[in-house]
Structure formats: C-alpha cells, structure tokens
Amino acid sequence: MPTKGSYEQWATVGGEYTVSDAGTISIPLLGPVSVGNMDETTLASTIAKQLKEKIGLVDEPAATIEILKYPPIYVVGDVTNPGEYAFHADITVLQAFAMGGGQMRASAGLQSSLDITKLVGDLKEIDDSIIRSTARVERLEAEMAGEKSLQPRQESADANPLTAAIYRQEEAIFSARANELTRQSKSLSGLRDLLSEEINVLEEKVKSTDANIGSVQQQLDSTIALIEKGAIVATRQAEVERVMRGYQNDRLDLTVAIMRARQSISQATRDLEGLYDRRQTEVASELQAERATIGQLLLKRDTSQKLLMDSLSSSSAARPNEDPKLTFSIVRNLAGKSNEIDASETTTMMPGDVLKVTLRPGSQTSTTNSLKAAETTARNISQ
C-alpha cells in the first residue's frame, strides 16, 4: 500500500494451492496459472506481474511462494514395509528402499490369507473414498456453475446402496449451502430496500422542513416591516428568527441522516457482492483440493493392486537356492501416462513415483502356469 507505506495481506489471493496434474494452480482473479518448471522465486514474480497487469496496479504486489508438501512416493514389491512415504528433495532409490524396510525376508511377505484379506479391505476402502470424492466434486461443480439443484449421474447414484446414500448426503449439503447463501443474500437485499425506504421518508421530511422554512421566512419579512413602521416591538423579530434557526437545524440533521443511509446502502451492496465472491473462491479451492485427492486415491488404488498381484505372484512362484538379485524400477506419470523405467540405487526419485523392488532368482525356475494363476486371483480380488 504505497499511500500508507506498509504491506497488507491480500486474503482474496493468498492461501494454499494444489498443483493439478496439468501443472497449474487456480488463483482467484487470475484463473489457471501454469507452474511448469519454475522455482518458487520465478513463480512468485510471474504471479506478481500478472496481478499487476490484470488489475492495473501501479506497483507489483509482493508475492512469496513456499512449497508446503510434495506428493508422496510409494515403495512396493519385495520390501519389508511396502506403502506410502513422504517425499523430500534429492531422495534416491536406495534411500526410498531403506524407508521401505529393506529387502523382504521370508517372514515379512504376504503369505497368509489374513494379510491378503487386509489388503483387499484396504482396496475396498479406497474405492469407497473415490466414490465419496467423486460425488463431492459433482456437488462443487454444480455450485460453481450456479445450478439450482444437484443432478447426480444416474448410473453413479443407482450403482449400489452405498453410492446412493453418498449422493443423497451430497444433495443435502448442496441444498443446505444454497439455502444459507439465499438467506444471507435476502437479508442484505432487504436491508438495502429498508434503507431506501428510509431515505424516501427523510426526503419527504426535508421537503416539509423546506416549506416551514419558507413560511417562517415570510413571517420574518413581515415582522421586520411592522417593526420598521413601529406597529410591533423588536423582540418579536428575535422570536421568529429563533424558530427559523430551529427549522434550519432540523434540515441539517435530516441531510446527515440521508447521507448515512446512503453510506449504509453502499456497504450492504459491497457485502452482497462480496458474499458471492467469497463463496466462489471457497468452492474453487475445495474443488481443486478434491480433484487432487481423487488423483492421489486413484494412484494409491493402482499401487495397492500392483502390490497385491506382486505378492500373490511371489507366493506362488518357486524360489531357487541360488543367490537372488535385487532390481529396481520406477513407475512415473509423464503427460498423463504411466511409464516404467529401470533404475539403480543412485537414481533420484520424483514426487509421486512408485518404486518397484523385485528380488530375482539366479535362474529362471518360476512356473508359468502358477504365475498366471496368481495374477488371475489378484485381479479377481481387486475387483
């Protein structure tokens, strides 16, 4: 704020944002902003320049960017503790392998039916979470579009009782939020109408006061003329002038009241406009976060399914007595497609990567038929 010589937080723009799969963040006033390969300083400078051009500011606002959290990495395969782990900069395959507990020992594999049942239960829980997030996204999209009612996809709502119940909950939330917004809007609109009526009444009082002032002015002129002729005493003039000042003071009070009412109308109008702006900003932020959540859940489901298939394959495949060899590969999402690349212990991992650790025997003694049977079982369980 150059006029004040100080900085003020810009709450409308500032906040926490999630980078989408397309590499963008959605900022109020600017819309989607491409992050690309920019670092924090470059991105902050870009946002500041766009805000200046978009709004027509004299100076660029001071923008700062800080990365709060990276997408997690996943370690699967022949490790002691497969699962999801927090990402940090410059993490290598060997470090991720160590986070997963190192090489899986015979007692650490998913050999029991209890472990497999637990993994299947986790997959079911993930599927339920995806349904909830999908329903929430549909509700937020309807709110963003200004729809009057929520119309879920028929095939989703009728799929099973759980899905139908989830969509009914989202419909109830949609109605409650819409009713709340309508009530607040009506309240502010009613306040404006009431203030407008008050101004009309005050203006009528001003007209009446002006008429009284005009009448008293005529009386004052007559009084002055009679005093000059000696028909009445001079004290009569002072009495009339006192009445005149009383009416003039009343008119000033009415003028101030009208100005205050108009100021209140302007404030109510700003509050009404801000009400919808705040709701749109809130919905946009929730929608962005929910879409990111769906992406993470889908990745987690795929990882869990691969873990189940790998575990069943490992349990059904014969292991030779020769010294095994560890191999690493990374499943990385590039341009919306999953690509598996070979890796070594020193390979640097990226956010969202899936590290696959495979313990290969010295000679190929696995039975093809048993491997196919294990894969079929894994697919049936995951479905």
Descriptive terms for the model:
two-stranded antiparallel ribbon, elongated, 59% helix, 7 strands, 383 residues, 7 helices, alpha+beta, 5-stranded mixed β-sheet
Describe, in short, the structure shown.
By secondary structure, the protein is α+β, with helices and mostly antiparallel strands.
Structural features, described:
- By secondary structure, the protein is of the alpha+beta class.
- 59% of the residues lie in helices and 10% in strands.
- The protein is built from 7 helices and 7 strands.
- It has helices at 40-55, 93-99, 113-144, 154-157, 161-229, 235-316, 368-382; strands at 24-27, 31-34, 73-77, 83-85, 325-334, 337-343, 354-360.
- The protein has a 5-stranded mixed beta sheet with strand order 4-3-7-5-6, sandwiched between helices.
- β5 (325-334) and β6 (337-343) form a beta hairpin.
- α3 (113-144) runs parallel beside α5 and α6 (235-316) runs antiparallel to α7 (368-382).
- The two termini are 58 Å apart.
Record the SSE blueprint.
Layout: E1 24-27, E2 31-34, H1 40-55, E3 73-77, E4 83-85, H2 93-99, H3 113-144, H4 154-157, H5 161-229, H6 235-316, E5 325-334, E6 337-343, E7 354-360, H7 368-382
Helix pairs in contact: 3-5, 3-6, 5-6, 6-7
CA radius of gyration: 37 Å
Strand content: 5-15%
SS summary, helix count: 7
pLDDT under 50 segments (min length 5)? 107-111, 363-368
Order of helices and strands: EEHEEHHHHHEEEH
- Strand element count: 7
